[in-house]
Amino acid sequence: MDARSFFVATLALLASVGVASAQTTMPPKKAPVVELEYEREVFRYPVAGRRDPFSALSKRGDLGPRFDELTLHGIIFSERAGSSVAVLSDGSGKRHRVRRGDVVGDAQVLDIGQTRVVFSVENFGIRRQEVLELGGERPGVAP
After folding, report:
1. How far from 116 is each of 25, 53, 83, CA to CA, in Å?
2. Which residues contact 141 (CB under 8 A, 6 or more apart)?
């Protein structure tokens, strides 16, 4: 057998083995079984000494008008401490006569001067000082 015939015989043998292996089918692999676990996340909220997280942060009906709704209309000034009176109105047009220490909505009157009233305003547990002046305009608020 010469080299050429040996090569042809080898190719024929390889071709027959390849066809035979292609024709034989292997059994299909079974898909792996996956077990699913469902876990429910549970939260606990200790209510002792805490507010209800689902209740509104402010109850506007109980508090009255917001400070942003107040407008200063006039001041009756007195040199005697605590005797000055400021006249305010809220967004609905209701008039409020206030003295030092009075509370209107979320604002408490700290001081009444000749042309201005100083308030302590509380929003969401944070206090800040605000001032209303006679004839003064607030930024962003139309007269």
Report:
1. 96, 38, 15
2. 68
Q: What angle do CA 66, 51, 58 make, to 5 degrees?
A: 10
The pTM for the full model equals 0.53
**Tens digit of pLDDT for each residue in 14-53?**
666 655 454 556 777 788 888 888 888 887 877 777 777 7
Decide: residue 64, CB within 10 A, 0-12 exposed, 13-18 middle, 19+ buried: middle
**Measured between alpha carbons, how far apart are the two ends of the chain, in Å?**
114
d(CA 72, CA 110): 15
Using CA atoms, how far apart are residues 50 and 114, in angstroms rounded to an integer?
43
